Every structure is written in structure tokens, then in C-alpha cells.
Amino acid sequence: MEKSYRNVFKWGDPNHEETIDLATLKIMKNIFGLTEEDLKRKYLPGYDKVRLKKESQLKPDIVKKLKAIVGEENVATDDFSRAYHSFGKYYTDLVKLRMGKVETPPDAVVYPRNDKDVEKIIEICHKEKIAVTPFGGHSSVTRSVETPDGGISLDLSKHMNKVISVNEVNSSVTVQAGMYGPPFEEYLNNYGIGYSCGHFPQSFEYSTVGGWAAARGAGQNSTGYGKMESMVLSMKFVTPRGIIETKDFPASAQGWDLDQIFMGSEGTLGIITELTMKIRKFQPENTSFVSFIFKNFESAVTAMRESMQSQFGLPHMFRISDPEETDIAFKIKGFENSFADKFLQALGHKPGKRCLMLVTVEGDKDYTNFVTCKIKKNCP
Known about the structure:
With 380 residues, the chain is α+β, with helices and mostly antiparallel strands. It contains 16 helices and 14 strands. The protein has a 5-stranded antiparallel beta sheet with strand order 5-6-10-8-9. The protein has a 4-stranded mixed beta sheet with strand order 1-2-4-3. Helix 4 runs antiparallel to helix 7 (115-128). The longest helix has 14 residues, at 115-128.
């Protein structure tokens, strides 16, 4: 299984196997009409060793120049490295990998060590008309890491993955774009009085800070902390025309905001190498958790809207599950047909209509208590 297609398309850590709980398996069997035999059978598991039909099109002198910049060990042209950097986690990508179809791999994978490396690489590629595709955590579902024109996949996660500085006076952190979510959050949690980045997308474990900005990401706490465009104070970009570096002023009245232009550009305008972001005090002991059950989706939306418009403050996570998702959650947790479930149904909360709402509020203890109490009044 080493260097196999499965190593490329498997979500998460290839060295660990995930186990699906029995309740989830039972639901899958009922919904899709599967048998025990179906669940034991493996379809296109992807255990074959990666072998690409398309060879690297880079000229030997270009490869030599790239190795001179970053070191021989930081330029890869082998089949597995090129296949690994050909796709993200878009469903079509995963299906193609299961079938062993890697039609447009990059010609080489380059791992820059710093901004200077990136600048020199871009300079060569611009001169030679070689496509450059930024690559971070491999979690993209927008097909932004695919390389239809071959060229170079520029992977920032190997070396450019560190916190540069933390400013406790203005509550900000400057970090390299290739740093993954968990080590970034852990570093902040343990720095000084303890801080949090506040950004937790579903891909948190396997995505990078630069990728969050390049994709204009949202996280489960974005209701309170905002999306990435609200969290980033400044960025550094390497472009064919040189380095562009914005400043982390608290506010600006300029006409063009380059951060907002590059935010969500998916690497089409340049390579994001460094970011300065807002940080918040890490106070998990004050986090308030509350959930509500509504008779239908419309009443849940009304309660959420009224809470958001009441101006008493914002929760950090504010989520409604539609009737189908609610029913599945109840089944997985073994709640369906329990005494509590029958009691809810007697009160008018019927399967197929009822909706679950999840809320968390973070920050100062008085704030979390106040906002939670206010939301409860809007969610009878």
C-alpha cells in the first residue's frame, strides 16, 4: 500500500484506519439497501502503486536551476509526488484516483524554504512560461490545486510552516502560509496568557493558514469571529512582478484593499507566503454550549434571525440541522424511539419535520452567560 493511489485519496492520516460506529453502519444499510456482504466488499480500493503515463515535461536545465535554489532534496519528479499534488478532495478527484487516472500531473513538485526561494522560483517560471500552482494542506474541494497545464506544484507546507511572531499588544500573530491548523492553534494556546486563532473549518486538521486565506475560508465559529476576510490584517504575496506586502494597520481608508483582492483568489494572482491575523484570548472554561429542538425548519430560522438582529451580541457557532440531518443525528446517538424521543413527539416535535439547533458562545464569562440567556429567550 506504500506509495499507492489510496495514500493519495485517503482523507486524513494514511497511517491510521477509521472505524465507523455500528449505528452509522445500520443507517447506511437501511438508506442504501446494503447487505453485510456489501459492506465487506471493497470496490476500487486503490492499493496499486502509483504509475503515471505522462512523464515530466520540464527541461533538465530548468530542474537543475530549481535544485540550485532550494536544494536537490526539495525538488521531486517521481510519480507518487506528482500524483499526490495533482488533486485535492473534490469528489471527482477522488473517483479518478480510485480508478488510477492521473491525467494532468505537475511536471515537478518544489518545496521552497523561504520567501526568497519563492521569489526566485516565480522569476524563473515567469521567464520560461511555466505554470505555478500553490499547494498547502491538500484539502481543496474547488479543484484549485489541479495542474491542467503541468508546470510546478509549489508546496509550502514542508518548510514554510512556522509562527514568526506574536504581538500581544495589538492581539495579532504573523505566521507562514504553510502552517497546518492544529500546530498553529496549539502554539497560540500555549503562548503567553493563551490565545486562539478562532478559525475552525471542517478541514482544520488537514488545511493550512495560507489555504484558509486563499479560499476565503469560513469555520464553525465564524458567526462570532468572522470569516477569514475579517480575521486577516495583512499578507505578503510573491507575484511575477515582485513581492507585495500589505500593512497590519487596524483600519484603512484607501480605495483598493489588496488583501481583499488576494483573499479567495485560490493562488491565481500570486503566492501567499505570510499572514498577520487577529487572535483572541483562549478561555475554553467560559464556553457556553446549548441546543434547542424546533418543530420545523421555519421556526428555527425565525429564532436564529431574531437572535442575530437583536444586537445583544453574537454566538460563535450558530447552526441549524434540517429535518433529515436531525433524524440521522438522533439515530446515530440512539435517541430514536427512546422515552425522551416519545416525549418530544407527544409535544409535537415529529420525525421528518423537527430541527436541531446547536449554539456555542465564547469569551468572557459574563458575555457568554448574557448572550446564552438572550438566545434562550428567542428559542422557546
